[in-house]
Amino acid sequence: MIHIPGYQNVFMDSASRYTWNELNERVFIGNVLESLKKQMAGDFGKYEFYIYSNHSGHQVPASANLQPKNKVLIFISDETS
């Protein structure tokens, strides 16, 4: 897993087809994470967020095998393919 710049608990799922810098949704996701960080305050750090982007319906996110207590998967996909 690769850390997303600026966060200790946000990762790009290693099974993703794209890197963080290649995601068109990068700015939007960054804004969502910042909003969550403000709303959750100290609780934000209690969660691990994994961003997964892959168009294959058969590929399983690598983070699916991880067992953190509070895991959130953000799945980005091209619904038209």
Our count of domains comes out at: 1
Distinct helical segment count: 1
Please trace the helix and strand order, writing H or E for each element: EEHEE
Q: Characterize the main sheet.
A: 4 strands, mixed
Which term fits the overall shape?
globular
From the alpha carbons, calculate the radius of gyration and give it in angstroms.
13 Å
**Based on helices, strands and strand pairing, what is the structural class?**
alpha/beta
Major β-sheet strand ordering: 1-2-3-4
List how many beta strands DSSP finds. Answer: 4
Average pLDDT confidence is 89
The helicity comes to 10-25%
Task: Give structural notes.
- The protein has one domain.
- The chain contains 1 helix and 4 strands.
- It has one helix spanning 26-40, and strands spanning 2-3, 10-12, 48-53, 71-76.
- The protein has a 4-stranded mixed β-sheet, with no helix packed on it.
- It is globular.
Give a brief rundown of this model:
Helix content is 19%, strand content 21%.
List keywords for this structure.
81 residues; alpha/beta; 4-stranded mixed beta sheet; 21% strand; globular
